[in-house]
Amino acid sequence: MPADDHARRNTLPRSLRLKRQRLIRALFDRDQSEVRSVRSGGLVVRYRLAPHDDVGQRVPLQAGFTTGRQIGSKPVRNRIKRVMREHFRVHRHALSDLFASRPNTLTLMFLYRGKPDGAAGAIARDLPAALRKIEGAFAHADAPAE
């Protein structure tokens, strides 16, 4: 594997982290018809397209990670979020490539709602599956009509 590919796979730049409150709120606003959700096991991913002007920079996607408070103590929730970020880093490239030349940024919020026991294994299975579903939804929308 070339050095560039290795570095690409193991980084999550700050520019790809979803931090703006208005973008996060928009993902949970019930009046927003453009917000979509994908469920895969104990993981829910809410996503929508946002103009680059709202994001403040030209990036293909931005992602945030959270858990429910019912999951357990703060260290347990932080560990689960860390595991989600790790798996997102490895599996994000297909979506990044899909949105690299688009006029909008894909904003994603990953919510873990499963059981804390075995969370790492569940996330390893469910997060890539959820990303494939989202990628398929956008790839299918771009397919030429026959």
**In terms of quaternary structure, what is this?**
single chain
Secondary-structure element order, N to C: HHEEHEHHEH
Number of strands: 4
Mean pLDDT: 86
- The SS-based structural class is alpha+beta
Largest sheet: 4 strands, mixed
Beta-strand percentage range:
15-25%
**What topology, given as strand order, has the largest sheet?**
1-2-4-3
Task: Supply the number of helical segments.
Answer: 6
Which residues form runs of ≥5 with pLDDT under 50? none
Helix and strand layout, with pairings?
Blueprint: H1 3-9, H2 21-28, E1 36-40, E2 43-51, H3 52-55, E3 61-67, H4 74-91, H5 93-99, E4 104-112, H6 119-142
Helix pairs in contact: 4-6
